[in-house]
Amino acid sequence: MNTDNYRKIIQPKEPDRLVKNAIWAYFILLIIEGALRKWFLPFLATPLLIVRDPLALWILFICWKRNLLSFDFYMVSMVILGLAATVTTLVFGHGNLQVALYGGRALLLHWPLIFVIGKVFDRHDVIKMGKVCLYIAIPMVILIGIQFYSPQSAWVNKGLNDEVEGGGFSGALGFFRPPGTFSFTNGNSLFFSLVACFVFYFWLNAKYINKLLLILATAALLISIPLSISRSLLFQIILSLLFTVIAVLYNPRYSVQMIKISMMTLIALMILSNLPFFQVATEAFTTRFEEADDTEGGLQGTLGDRFFGDLTLAFVGATDQPYFGQGLGMGTNAGSKLMTGDREFLIAEGEWGRVIGEMGLVFGLVLIVIRISFSIKLVLASFRKLTEGDMLPWMLLSYAILILTQGGWAQPTPLGFHTLIAGLLLASLNHKKKEFVPITLPASSSLQYC
Question: Which terminus of the chain, N or C, has fewer Cβ atoms within 10 Å?
């Protein structure tokens, strides 16, 4: 037999390339969706709001035809819940089919897509996407720097549909929080939070990355903190750093790399602190931090109100809601625009409060329990991988843990990052080596795996 034939027999079956490319298209659209809506195709700003939804539907359809769907308990239970909530929305809720479909797409399209990414992608794909994120971080931080120092009337700060002067959000000292290529400023924070977990991972596993790229991406991450004027981004980076420390404690052989990370970070901060643009941004960021602390009662108040407070407030007055809630999609800005003509929070700004308000106490609790139990499953699996010496799932978990449990699904951008990081985390857990192994070819020409 020809050696090439042996290789074809031994080589593991390649996952569906078409679906992989579609997942990459989902990622690219997540990054550029806001830029298309604001700058290049503003006349299509409304339909582009759901530009990834038809792609997600097509991916699920192709996977169903090719038997690539993994009917995991968490996927099936969420889809059943979404179908049931859609019916109750039309029968007992607001009754608007368009709004119901918009609200239900998170459960029926994007949640199942998590499990497709987890099955079709492998470890190589996850690391490759991490590298691409590092490449994107460099021009992205340049863009938000230009947005930060430009007036809100500048083209680079153009908002959606020209409804407001600029797409930035109030920050401090007359500066606005820049949105980057996203429709709103939270997209910028979500993106650099994703970059952070890959930056820390690659510093501990430098063999997978170009050193110059890693240094530039690390600098971009540090610069993004003050330019974003986002406390959420800072908290997420600190959380990823804590996960890194835990990873090193369980794998002491990475201690030297951890020392290098600390030294490089200190040197970078010393250099950046002497640059005027960084000094001004840092002053605006610290001012915003101090003003928010005064308003919310310091760090304890900030964490209590922004995180734990939203969770407890979700159940306050829940019994006053209709049994099946007010209907899917009603708690989203897009849903309120369709129903009232204005973008406002008709139910609640917090994710859990919105879910219970839309779906009712029973269905809402079921959805929350599914998200939490799925998160716990990923925590345990990632920790097990960490103890085995594989820290990639653990570092992805540092970003996924909060967005999985209480990340917002009301806006397309947070929903997209939720889908992406959960899928990448699943893919990193399903690590299967695809390396050729030594084989022996007996006289019978049969193949044996070693």
Answer: C
